[in-house]
């Protein structure tokens, strides 16, 4: 099951998976919209009979200095990282409880561990992801699994996207110097998922060796 806002990109991934003999379904999803998450999890259950894992990965790195007053970007980070994560929990938790199994994988950032200017709003919302994930883990027993995955610099199109011009330039420079591929995060998530029942990988931090 794939959820994303951009229909063309969603269709492209679904087509790539089905062309290789896999089965995939895409649902247009804006994580800030509670109904969209519900539709995503309901569709998973309808089409595949169950929901094994919810990976909450949507994020925005529209970072800027406070003096720039980019308040829409602050709001978007709060809405995507905090409300979006809660919408996923609200949609998947009843399904997981009914099944007596399920796995939340929440993507934070190394920014959840240390704040570096001008990333304060981003870091605060990612610290919230970390806190919510730990609280959820404490309440999720005895059947459910909860994993926090915190990437460092990863080579994606999102680095610098929407950030103020000087921040974007610095981020892109750092990305080009040291970023590691997204597959490093995918394999960390795969590792958490492939554990036998009863084993919870609670927290994974994956960063380039070159990242201070
Ligand atoms: N790349 C890094 O260095 C890095 C480091 C630490 C943590 N992370 C985290 O890793 C995650 C993935 O980021 P990325 O690097 O892969 O960036 P990306 O290429 O920009 O991917 C982020 C995705 O999230 C989607 N998204 C944003 N807001 C959304 C919403 N309201 N509803 C649904 N989807 C939404 C974006 O969709 P649209 O295409 O529609 O905008 C985009 O596809 C994020 O949570 C990010 O904070 C990344």
UniProtKB/TrEMBL annotation:
Keywords: NADP, Oxidoreductase
Top-rank lineage group of the source organism: Bacteria
Pfam families, A to Z: adh_short
Similarity comment text for this entry: Belongs to the short-chain dehydrogenases/reductases (SDR) family.
Name of protein: Oxidoreductase
């Amino acid at each position: 099951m794939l959820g994303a806002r951009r229909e063309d990109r969603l269709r492209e991934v679904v087509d790539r998976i089905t062309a290789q003999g896999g089965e995939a379904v895409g649902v247009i999803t804006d994580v800030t919209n509670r109904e969209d998450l519900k539709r995503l999890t309901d569709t998973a259950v309808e089409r595949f009979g169950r929901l094994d894992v919810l990976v909450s990965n949507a994020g925005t790195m529209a970072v800027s200095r406070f003096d720039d007053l980019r308040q829409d970007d602050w709001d978007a980070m709060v809405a995507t990282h905090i409300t979006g994560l809660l919408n996923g929990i609200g949609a998947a938790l009843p399904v997981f409880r009914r099944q007596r199994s399920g796995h939340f994988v929440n993507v934070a950032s190394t920014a959840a561990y240390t704040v570096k200017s001008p990333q304060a709003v981003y870091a605060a919302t990612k610290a919230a992801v970390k806190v919510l994930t730990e609280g959820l883990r404490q309440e999720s027993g005895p059947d459910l699994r909860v994993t926090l995955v915190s990437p460092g610099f990863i080579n994606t199109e999102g680095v610098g996207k929407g950030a103020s011009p000087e921040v974007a330039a610095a981020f892109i420079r750092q990305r080009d110097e040291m970023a590691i591929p997204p597959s490093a995060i995918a394999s960390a998530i795969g590792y958490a998922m492939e554990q036998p029942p009863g084993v919870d990988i609670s927290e994974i931090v994956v960063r380039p060796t070159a990242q201070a």
